Amino acid sequence: xxxxxxxxxxxxxxxxxxxxxxxxxxxxxxxxxxxxxxxxxxxxxxxxxxxxxxxxxxxxxxxxxxxxxxxxxxxxxxxxxxxxxxxxxxxxxxxxxxxxxxxxxxxxxxxxxxxxxxxxxxxxxxxxxxxxxxxxxxxxxxxxxxxxxxxxxxxxxxxxxxxxxxxxxxxxxxxxxxxxxxxxxxxxxxxxxxxxxxxxxxxxxxxxxxxxxxxxxxxxxxxxxxxxxxxxxxxxxxxxxxxxxxxxxxxxxxxxxxxxxxxxxxxxxxxxxxxxxxxxxxxxxxxxxxxxxxxxxxxxxxxxxxxxxxxxxxxxxxxxxxxxxxxxxxxxxxxxxxxxxxxxxxxx
Length: 348
Description:
The chain has eight helices and five strands. A hairpin with a 5-residue loop joins strand 1 and strand 2. The N and C termini lie far apart (207 Å). Helix 2 (114-132) runs parallel beside helix 7 (251-328) and helix 3 (169-175) packs antiparallel against helix 4 (180-205). By secondary structure, the protein is an alpha/beta fold. It has a domain at 101-270.
């Protein structure tokens, strides 16, 4: 019976403890729930605040991005417009180049006849001379006593003959040759053409007895022909021309020669002007010597005149003194005869 009572008492204690524990746990859970809700509310507020900041940042960045995209689109549009304009200009330039190519093709066809090429070379030569030298320094179509006529001469101290040549036919065949044998054949023909021109220039236009130098210039309007002549495989053509005292020139090298000749002409003009100035100075010196002689003569005359003037002034002073003394010496008698004036003047 006691055991049952103890067991019941222990059960009641355990039940009471469980009730107290349950109430404590309920209170603790309530407190924990309150704190959890508060923390959750704070966390939610922080999250909302952060989300709001992120959204505002995203909106600002999206606005900046839109502005940059609009600006980039405007720049791209402007660049596209410029590209279209440049493409238009390129198309126009291409059309002009095609037209120029057609013109060059027509010019090439027009220059096929040798006489037409010769006239074109003479025209280019005259243009170079006109652009670089004064009109008095050159003459086109100069005629020698033999009746031979050279394309141009340059007047330095003597005459420099210049003849334009355009050996194009065999040069083009040589350039367009497909094989070595064909090229060698046309090289020989080109060499014969060049040698023929060199011989003709040396025989016709190198005339020291008519005031020319002992050499002449052969003007080649095409740079490719000049390059082939000067920088050929062996250089035999250039050596042959130099032996004949004929010097090939192209538009580029001839321009340099003309520049040097222009400087030389200016130096000669300066020298001539200096000689004229020296002659004029000598003339001035002679005139100054004559003027000095005249000036010294005038000084001598002026010195003599001054001496005569001083003597006359002294005589005038003496004569004035005598007049004063004569005026003071009045005759005591009314009927007295005054002294003779001529004798007084002679005495003075």
